[in-house]
Amino acid sequence: MLDFDDPIPLPTSQLLADANQPLANQPAVEESALATSADSTPIAAPPATPTLMKTILPRRLPELASSLNPVSIGHKSVDTDSIRIIGGKHYDVRQPVPVKYPSVREHFLNARNNFWTPHEIPMGDDKVQWNTGVLTEEENWLFKCNISYLTASDNLVPDNLSNVILQQITANEMRQYLRWQIAEESNHIESYFFILESFGLDEKGQGQIFSLYQDVPELVNKLNWNLTFTNHLLDCEYPQASPEANTALLEDLISYYVFEYLFFPLGFSQVFALARQGKLRNTAQQYQYIWRDENLHAINERWLILQIIKENPSLWTAKMQERARAIVNEAVELEIAFGKATMPNGGIAGLSVQSYAEYARLMGDNLLKSLNLKPLFNIKEHPMLWLAEFEMKQEVNFFEGRVRDYRVGTALDWN
Ligand SMILES: [Fe+2]
Ligand SMILES: [Fe+2]
Questions:
Q1: What separation in Å is there between the alpha carbon of 326 and the centre of ligand 1?
Q2: Which domain range does residue 171 map to?
Q3: pLDDT tens string 192-247
Q4: Are residues 291 and 215 in the same domain?
Q5: Which ligand is nearest to the CA of 268?
Q6: CB 284 within 8 A of CB 271
């Protein structure tokens, strides 16, 4: 039996065997077959490295510059004009220069400069409140649903990025940004985990809260809605970069733009409403930092959608524009249903289901306008202006704490 301290055996013979077979459908190769020729005359084993390189690497360039394609031999440089945000051809996406989209590199630098860690936010006051029954029964239900949904949804975003989006993106700087975003979403999940852990809940208690999204139809419906777009792209039978695949990609990106721009802020507003009543203010501070990240994600997502449309104008048909509006309409309906399910008695102190629904419609309209589309609801006034208190302006520290020492310098505008 192998011991964990045993050295890992190097499968040299298997590497040689792999190197001498076509890449697809490789049959198993016996070691003895490498050491003898057909007439059983012993032959010298070829030098390992040159054989491996020569056989595995492709002799011609892949058609599409996807990260899943092998390294493109012979293309050590690429001109800016040939780089495309999706569907780029005949270059290797692993080369960081030239930078075709400097604003996306800026997105990355901004995000990196805003990095924070949940563990630096003191949670002691919230622990006391959680354990001394400060929250009403309604507030308790709302909070549990809220953190359960947000945790599950923050898991969906990186899954979508890694499983379907990164395969399509053919600009190095955007790939770099999206990989950083995946790390940030993991940091958000850690934040939710840390919140419940800080309350003193054991694994069983945490699990009962985290798994709530599976029991409440309005929560699981919202999650499944986004998953449908991911799966549609995963199951797409059309080739990458075909008009059909690009349309599915655009739909998926719009649904996740909804995530970053609408679903998350609406969810955060519920905990900010509690904080306005002096409840769970430490948790609200965690949410503030997450919200700041989600704003940057939304900015980048919008940029990506608009750039794809700019480079592929034939995708942005009148039908597709109506489809985008229908997607946002569905999202708003799901969000309103979520609001009703999490606030079954019409609201909590400082937050009514009605104003929550208005906020969802307002954000839906704003999202559509940000894509140059006609709004659906024409909401005139922001129903929850007090949310500005919780919006993190980079030059202002809202709370004391070491997190403020992280550099904050990002303007949250759309330019
Ligand atoms: Fe997130
Ligand atoms: Fe995000």
A1: 24
A2: 102-405
A3: 999 999 999 999 999 999 999 999 999 999 999 999 999 999 998 888 889 999 99
A4: yes
A5: 1
A6: yes
